[in-house]
Structures are given as structure tokens and as C-alpha cells.
Amino acid sequence: MLQFKEGIKQAIWFLFAVWCAFAVGIWLQAQQTIRTISTVDELSGKVDEVRHIFNFELPYRAQHVDQVSLKLQLVYAVRLQLQSEYSDRWGGPDLTQLLYSTDRFLEGARTFIGSDSELVALADQLHNSRESASNSEQLRTMYYRLGALVLEAMFSDAATSSDTYQELDSLFTESQKLEQKEQGAFQRRLAQTSSVLAAHAQGSHLANQLLNPEFSNQFASVISSLEQKLMFYISFLVLVSGSLLAVVSWALFYKETPVLDAPIQPCEKTDTPMKPNPPEVILPTEKQVTEPSGEERMPVDVVKPTTPLEEENDDASSSAASVSVETDEPYIDIEKMLDSLSGDEESVRMLLEVFIQDHSEDGTKLRTLIAEGKDEEHAQRIAHSLKGVSGSIGAMPLHYISGDIESLIKQGQEVVTGKLDMLEDTLQKTTLFAEAVLDSENIREVLTD
């Protein structure tokens, strides 16, 4: 009987240990699912913020180009966070399609915003070229006509009209009568205008793709499947716990039964009569089974973006960019970033981490591409991307020098070694400054150093 009781006790402890291991595994899976739901929901919200701006017309979007660029950086940061959680998880849902759709959305959104930004920059450059004191009266008049075409493209559908391109051909014919110096300058602006208007004409098609409701439906479908999986984990844990409790209760009840109901065996007859001994009654010992306390829930941090960073962007004057690099501006205006993000240090850290990860080697890439001279378009894209990202995080010295190099590549001029050295030096110091900010416990401490 003692061996039977000891066996029951060992079985109960074994089942309890198995239940603890199972409960911890289910709890960890449930916590991971909750974090993934939170990240997917956050990504969906940030994508909707960007899509909301695309519903407005170009004049409004042109005033919020920097705001949209900053929001796209936050979307990309959350997308990297979701990919990290997805790759580190065993048995999680398939998020490959959602990540692919997010990448397509980011690519289309950057192209769409890039066309708006180039159109606004073109208007500024035309104004600066027109106001040059060395212009003849005929050249000034032709700049006014070219500016009118850009204005029509911003406020009407003239960018897709054949009359617009006929007018551009007419201006090109007239420009051949100008002096050699004025002719070259005007024809460069004419080619730039034609390229920008062609990119802007594709804006409506891009807008339809970016506003496609199928992308939002993917988020809803993924969140729904994750919530179903979470309910399955909870239900399964409750079912197993109930089954274990039933087994333990049965074992405790069954332990008493054979002792209380055991029959008394009669003594065998012998030659010498003996007085039978009274039967021994063994009282059962009650066992108490304690159940473990519930696990503590782990909090889920959600990055909430706030208002974006505002900056000035002028691609027309490369000399102004060079002068700005030499001023005492900080490599990254952390104070301005905090003001634009309502003091949200987590968002600032996230943007700086993405900047270091994606752009720390851009100086070396640019030098290699320019030295080979084979892919100027790729080099221009790298310089343009670096200019936009540095402007969105307030790294104005890097913004100016990268914009200067982009302008030189776009105009087909030679990029001297000094420019590339200045870019690499500024990028290195900007990256070191960003790493110092990330290493500090309090971002505002860096401002006082």
C-alpha cells in the first residue's frame, strides 16, 4: 500500500512538471503572438497615415514632402521590426506576402513623393535662372513661358497633354537662336522640365496602386489569423489544465478506495486454535496539490510618431550648399528632431538606427560608381536618397553636400575628388554622432556635451 501511495505521488509531480513546461511554452507563444499583432497593427496605422496624404492634390502634397518622407522612414523602421520578429519565431504565421507588399508600397510611395519633390525643386530652379542679371530679354521671356508650363502641370492635367510637349518643342526651336551660353543653360532646364513632367504624368497611375484597398485587406487578414491563433493557444491551455486537474482529482479519490473497501481475509484453520488478530485500519493521508501562480505579462512598447521634421531644400545653388557645410551647424539637429516628434526619444532612436544601417557606406559606393563611370543613374539615386534621408533627420551638413553632388551628376558635370572627400568625412562624422546618441541613456545629454 505504501508503494502504491508513493507511485501516485510521483505520478502527480510528474504531471505537474509536464504541465508547467507546457504552460510556459504556450504562454511564450501567446506573448509573441500579441507582440506580432501589435507590430502589424502599428505598421498598418503608419501606412494609412501615408496613404491619407496621397488623397490630396499636388499643391498640398508639395508643402508636406518632408513630412511624408519622415513617415516613410518610420514605416520602413516598423517593417524591419516586424521582419525581425517573424524570422526569430518558430511556428509563426507566414508574413512573406505582407512584407513583400510593404516593400512595393514603400518603393511606389518614394517614387511618387520624389516626382512631387522634383517638380517643386524645378519651379525654384526656374525662378533662380530667370532672375539672373545676365539674362537677355528674350531668354527671360522664354523662362516665363517654361514656368507657366510647370504651373499648369501642378494645377491641371496638362502634364499628360500633347499641347504641353508641343510647346516644349517650340521653346527648344526658339532656344537655338540664343547665344551659345544662354542656349546651353536654357536647354538643360528644358530637358529637366521634360523629364520631371514625364515622371509627374505617371503620378495618377502610381496613386491608384498606392490607394488600392487590397493592401489594407492584407493587414486585416493577417491580424485576424493572429487573433485566431491566440485564441487557440488560450483555449488549448485551458483544456489541458482542466484535463490535468481531472486526472489529479481522480488519483486522489482512487487512492482512498482500495483501503476503505478492502475485505478482511479469514484465518485458516489449524490444529491449534488461535485467536484472530483484529484487522488494521490504515487511515488515508490527504495530499494537497498547489498550483503555480500566473506568469507576469510582458509589456509591449508601441512607437508613436508625431509631427515630422521641417527643413528647407534648395537644389539650385551648389555654392550655398558648400557654405552651409562649413558653418557651425550640428551634424544632426537632435533638438529639432525632438521638437518635431514631440520629444519621442524612441522614434528618434529608431530613425537613427535605420540611417546607420542603410546609409553608412553610401560615400564609398558613390566614389566607386563615379570612378567607374558606368552607372551614373545609380550614383544619382544614391546621392538623392542620402540627401532626402539626411534632410528628414536634420543632418543638414550632409544634406547640403549630397545635394550638391546630386546636382553635379544630374547636369553631367565632373564630381571632383574634394567633393567626395567632403561627403565621406561628413557622413562618417554624422554616423559617429548618431552612434553616440544611440549609446546615451538620455538623448538630451548629448546636446549638453
From TrEMBL:
- Compositionally biased tracts (Low complexity): 316-325
A GO molecular function assigned to this protein is: protein kinase activity
Regions that span the bilayer: 12-30, 230-253
Q: Does the keyword Transmembrane apply?
A: yes
Q: Which SUPFAM superfamilies match?
A: Histidine-containing phosphotransfer domain, HPT domain
Decide whether keyword ATP-binding is in the record: no
For this UniProt entry, which residues form the secretion signal?
none
Which terms are listed as keywords in the entry?
Membrane, Phosphoprotein, Transmembrane, Transmembrane helix, Two-component regulatory system
Q: Where is this region: Disordered?
A: 305-325
Positions carrying Phosphohistidine are: H384
Q: Where is the HPt domain?
A: 344-441
Q: What is this protein called?
A: Hpt domain-containing protein
Q: Which organism is the protein's source?
A: Vibrio harveyi (Beneckea harveyi)
